[in-house]
Design brief:
Blueprint lengths: L20 E7 L3 E8 L15 E8 L2 E5 L6 E3 L4 E4 L5 E6 L5 E8 L2 H19 L2
Antiparallel strand pairs: 1-2, 2-8, 3-6, 3-8, 4-5, 4-7
Length: 132
């Protein structure tokens, strides 16, 4: 058995963050878990995230404001707040706390529809190999 490494989510964060910092903690073909650290950053003006995968986010430390393209108010996140952002829901980070690090965990994964589509495609390929 490989040794188990225990790490702290708050360790190893760069002291100076001129831009948002992303670190992949774990990934495989089905999901990606990222640690994101911000300090006063937001998404550049006019830019929106439009991701192919669903995303679940939890804010562990700091504060942030998220905006969704079809909604007017900014959603304020505080430590412990979490949300699910479905694939292709356009969103942006309006602001993050500038007096402390804002630490997030984001889990990106295939939506149920995408997973079903992949399953059907794999089944179709398997059936076509059997009929040859």
């Amino acid at each position: 058995m490989a040794p188990i490494n225990i790490e702290n989510i708050y360790d190893g964060i760069p002291e100076h963050l001129p831009e948002e910092w992303f670190q992949i903690l774990l990934e495989n073909r089905n999901f990606r878990i990222e640690r994101i650290v911000s300090k006063g950053q937001g998404t550049p003006e006019g830019q929106w995230f439009d991701q192919d995968a669903d995303e679940w986010v939890i804010l562990l430390k700091g504060a942030a404001g998220l905006r969704f393209k079809d909604d007017e108010p900014v959603v304020k996140l505080l430590p412990g707040d979490h949300l699910h952002i479905p694939a292709h829901v356009k969103h942006r980070v309006e602001w993050t706390a500038d007096h402390e690090n804002t630490v997030w965990i984001a889990i990106h994964y295939a939506s149920a529809a995408a997973a079903e589509e992949e399953h059907n495609l794999n089944r179709s390929h398997a059936e076509s190999r059997r009929t040859r």
